[in-house]
Amino acid sequence: MLDLHDISLTFNENTPDEKKALQQVNLTMGKGEFVTVIGSNGAGKSTLMNVISGTLIPDVGFVNIGNKKVTGLPEYKRSKFIGRVFQDPMAGTAPTMTIEENLAMAYARDKKRTLRIGVTKKRKELFRDYLKTLNLGLEDRLTAKVGLLSGGERQALSLLMATFTEPNILMLDEHTAALDPSRAELIKNLTKDVVDKFNLTTLMVTHNMQQALDLGNRLIMMDKGQIILDVKGEEKQKLTIEKLLHEFKRIRGEQFESDRAILG
After folding, report:
1. 22 has which bridge partners?
2. With left for phi above 0 and alpha for psi between -120 and 50, is residue 162 left, alpha or beta?
3. Taking a C-beta distance cutoff of 8 angstroms, is the pair 99, 138 a contact?
4. pLDDT-derived band of residue 112, with 50, 70 and 90 as boundaries?
5. What are the phi and psi torsion angles at 211 (to 5°)?
6. Could you tell me if residue 132 is inside a domain?
7. What percent of the chain has pLDDT over 90?
8. Of the residues 56, 105, 173, 183, which has the fewest C-beta atoms closer than 10 A?
């Protein structure tokens, strides 16, 4: 479902501010694989997500999504293949539109645009059924403006919208980081339920090592634009934060410095 081959990207090349954001990154993900990505600030996690989404174009290498080469495709053309939830609960929805209008936009993401009305009676019932799975009572608030929702409710809606059309790949970019602990736990559990239900191929970036251990069936660690550790299956299930820190020191010869990652 996803194939990154020899991806390299340098910012501000040949200047004093030159930064090698990604260095010969290779990553292949099969159908239904759930990969969590951990690393300190500047490791290249968000840059990796932006290369996949089309926000950034790599200097070298190619990106395939669902066996389709998309390296040169702009972000809006890749949107039919990708569902993405951002760190900011405000980023994935339109605040001045209603819940049902937001869902109608998400529903039409992979369909041909027409002049037909977006919110039909049949679609309202479909939206209610999907919203019920969140257990937040949003199915009874279809005409409420999204800007009036709490951060947790809005992020739950963003998650639902991102998975509505069962995209080739779901990308979660620090999607619980801006929430309080109780709401973050809610979204974490919803994420697991939604990914399991639709068997979605998922790539989740997080600073929180414990969250990276709790979710997914594969974990990769990045540092200085490179994937330095790739663990899956039973080996991942046996990992602890202490083992991750030990592996980082073994590979890099230095301590992992991000308290935020350790403490969550």
Report:
1. 9
2. alpha
3. yes
4. low
5. -65, -40
6. no
7. 62
8. 105
pTM to 2 decimal places: 0.88
Give the angle subtended at the CA of 258 by the CAs of 243 and 185, to the nearest 5°. Answer: 80
C-alpha 29/C-alpha 104 separation (Å) is 29
Name the nearest CA neighbour of 172 among 218, 208, 203.
203
pLDDT at 263 over 50: no
Q: How many CB atoms lie within 10 A of CB 259?
A: 10
Name the nearest CA neighbour of 180 among 206, 144, 202, 153: 153
Take residue 22 and report the two structure tokens written for it: 């990604």
| 44 conformational bin, left if phi > 0, alpha if psi -120 to 50, beta if neither | left
Evaluate whether residue 159 is within a structural domain: no
Q: Give me 236's structure tokens.
A: 């991942």
d(CA 203, CA 251): 23
Round to whole Å and give the CA distance between 9 and 60. Answer: 7
What amino acid is encoded at 141 in this protein? R
Question: pLDDT of 233-244, one tens digit each?
Answer: 999 999 999 999
Domain assignment of residue 127, yes or no: no
Question: Does residue 19 lie within any of the structural domains?
Answer: yes
Task: Name the pairing type of β-strands 19-29 and 34-38.
Answer: unpaired
